[in-house]
Amino acid sequence: MAKLDVTAIAGAIATAKRPTEVVFCVSIGTYVAFQDTVAAARAAAADAATVAKAVTAAVHLDRARDLDHDPAFGIAQRENIAWAATSSVKLNLKPTLLTVDRLRDILAHWAAAGDDVEVETSLIVYPDDVGPRPMEAVAAIALVASRPTPRSSAPSPTRSTACRRRRKRGSRT
At 159, is the secondary structure helix, strand, or coil? Predict the structure, then answer.
């Protein structure tokens, strides 16, 4: 699911004759297959078709994720870049440090914003699971950074081999 027009769904719910609720089963950025349930409308029989039509029109499915509407995608991209830079033979910590700094910045902005929950009850239920993603990304990056890479572990066997050769020659250093 790439985009969601909440205003259109809210409009359909407002015109319903009886209390209606739309419950989403997936969040933006989730890949869905043919005939997967994206949302369920809890509505009276008279309103069900109208609400279902509005939900179908309001949900935009696409094969590619979009940074403008999917913050989890941006977080995943940053995590992948840092993971690759840290775990590769090339070992470049600059992208990793920049990524951790940016993820910390995202968390700081979200914490400062607080909860934007209005007092009014919403009739659209959406599983927003992006909140823990920055910390999960930092944890994954920390995990790969803690593992020895070929570059960092290569001097150890080289050093021990050099020490053995010196001992055989009778040199002590």
Answer: helix
- Residues 1, 32 contacting (CB under 8 angstroms): yes
Is 18 within 8 Å of 43 (Cβ atoms)? yes
Cα radius of gyration rounded to whole Å, the chain: 26
Handedness of CA 66, 67, 69, 74 (dihedral sign): positive
pTM over 0.90: no
- Could you report the average pLDDT of every consecutive run of 10 residues in the chain (173 residues)? 91 89 92 92 90 93 88 90 79 85 88 65 82 89 74 43 50 50
Please state, in angstroms and rounded to a whole number, the distance separating the CA atoms of residues 11 and 23.
Answer: 15
> How far does Cα 107 stand from its chain's mean position?
13
